[in-house]
UniProtKB/TrEMBL annotation:
Coiled coil: none annotated. GO terms for molecular function: magnesium ion binding; oxidoreductase activity, acting on the aldehyde or oxo group of donors, disulfide as acceptor. This is Pyruvate dehydrogenase E1 component subunit alpha. SUPFAM superfamilies: Thiamin diphosphate-binding fold (THDP-binding). Its cofactor is thiamine diphosphate. Residues 82-360 form the Dehydrogenase E1 component domain.
Length: 410
């Protein structure tokens, strides 16, 4: 028996619901997969993953996870498809805007739409998500306007949205740090006696960070209602996952005493089901879960990166055959033959979104040059004052900055 099932038997909070059943069921799967770990992570010998839609769009039955998507009918499937298409369209527009000099940098989510829309749509309004810098699909699900994601990448603000407005924290670039923020927040949720849950997003590369290890341990020991949602997109910039771990990532959870599961990250339905299961465990007081969404970063790490320098095109081509959007489209087409109008309308909606994003970015006002100094300390600081004065002198040295005088203390 693994420690995770012990935690499942002793819910620290009682928020209703039947504790333990799914948790202990998972622990059995977890134990079984230890054997699979011995096979290592060499490609081609990967362990099984939870899949509800094959790459060809065929629905696969799964007794354990089907109940979590029992409410997903034709309309909801179309909704998930729309979310993925619009997110991809927004992402493509942002990449184009960067190429045209309107943004300084853009981290594309191309290929990871299912992982993000599935997990994002599994959340409830009172749940809280702690993203990395690539969670554009999650942001979409949380109701953050996509244009707000772009201010930081244009260099005109330090974030762009109120985290508490949508329970979606600001993008976090310090790799893995948000796993600790999420765990601390989740511990607070538990202390409040609320039945909300928290998602900590991170990548395969982040799994090597001390912060993530510490978060796993704190979450386990304090039974925090947090879902560690790892998008294993196979790469951390130019480092492959083989350089991060000797065991499949989801199996790390066992060592900390909570369940881990690998889901097909290109299958939106499976990501929705598995994340819902994990969130419900958290709500019932059964503690953390590690979900490894096995997916692929189809584009560059960011617009500053050139993946042709370190990976073969064959790999991308192989993953293109598992494209999350094409997979759901095939499935939708197999369910009904009267859906062409839906695709055509969505195409128009996508183009309109692209135009809206482009116009909004171009209209973003430049920030006040001195505002950055105001946000460092609540009550000011002598060092910041000195730096502000230096910056003012520097600005005043430009001929077209006649409005800024040396010693300007704005
Ligand atoms: C603490 C820290 N170290 C290094 C970096 C530089 N860095 C930015 S992204 C990245 C790779 C992250 O890879 P992964 O966690 O797999 O996420 P992905 O970018 O693939 O979504 C690194 C090392 C950083 N931002 N923060
Ligand atoms: Mg990665």
């Amino acid at each position: 028996m693994t420690v995770e099932s012990t935690a499942a038997r002793k819910p620290r909070r009682s928020a209703g619901g039947k504790a333990g059943t799914t948790g202990s069921k998972r622990s059995t799967t977890g134990t079984k997969s230890t054997t699979r770990a011995a096979a290592g992570t060499a490609r081609g010998t990967e362990p099984e993953l939870v899949q509800l839609l094959t790459p060809e769009g065929k629905r696969v039955r799964n007794a354990e996870y089907d109940p979590y998507v029992a409410d997903i009918g034709d309309e909801e499937l179309r909704g998930l498809y729309r979310d993925m298409v619009l997110t991809r369209r927004f992402d493509a527009e942002a990449t184009a805007l960067q190429r045209q000099g309107e943004l300084g940098l853009w981290p594309s989510l191309l290929g990871q739409e299912a992982a993000q829309i599935g997990s994002g749509r599994a959340t409830r309004e009172d749940d809280y998500v702690f993203p990395t810098y690539r969670e554009h699909g999650m942001a979409w699900c949380r109701g953050v306007d996509p244009t707000n994601l772009l201010g930081m990448f244009r260099g005109v603000n330090n974030g762009g949205w109120d985290p508490n407005g949508n329970n979606f924290h600001l993008y976090t670039i310090v790799i893995g740090s948000q796993a600790l923020h999420a765990t601390g927040y989740a511990m607070g949720v538990a202390k409040d006696g609320a039945d909300a849950a928290v998602i900590a997003c991170f990548g395969d590369g982040a799994s090597s960070q001390g912060d993530v290890a510490e978060a796993f341990n704190f979450a386990a020991v304090y039974n925090a209602p947090v879902v560690f949602f790892c998008q294993n997109n196979q790469w951390a910039i130019s480092e492959p996952t083989e350089k991060q771990t000797r065991v499949p990532l989801y199996q790390r959870a066992q060592g900390y005493g909570f369940p881990g599961v690998r889901v097909d990250g290109n299958d939106v339905l499976a990501c929705l089901a598995v994340t819902k299961w994990a969130l419900e465990r958290a709500r019932r007081g059964e503690g953390p879960t590690l979900v490894e969404a096995y997916t692929y970063r189809m584009g560059a790490h960011t617009t500053s990166d050139d993946p042709t320098r370190y990976r073969l095109d064959d790999e991308r081509v192989a993953w293109e055959a598992k494209d999350p959007i094409a997979r759901l489209r095939s499935h939708l087409e197999s369910r009904t033959d009267t859906i062409e109008g839906f695709f055509a309308e969505l195409e128009e909606e996508s183009e309109a979104l692209g135009r809206r994003v482009r116009e909004a970015v171009r209209a973003m006002p430049d920030p006040d040059r001195f505002a950055i100094f105001e946000n460092a300390y609540a009550d000011g600081h002598a060092l910041v004052d000195e730096e502000r004065a230096q910056f003012a002198a520097y600005q005043a040295s430009f001929a077209d900055n006649a409005d800024v005088e040396e010693g300007d203390q704005r």
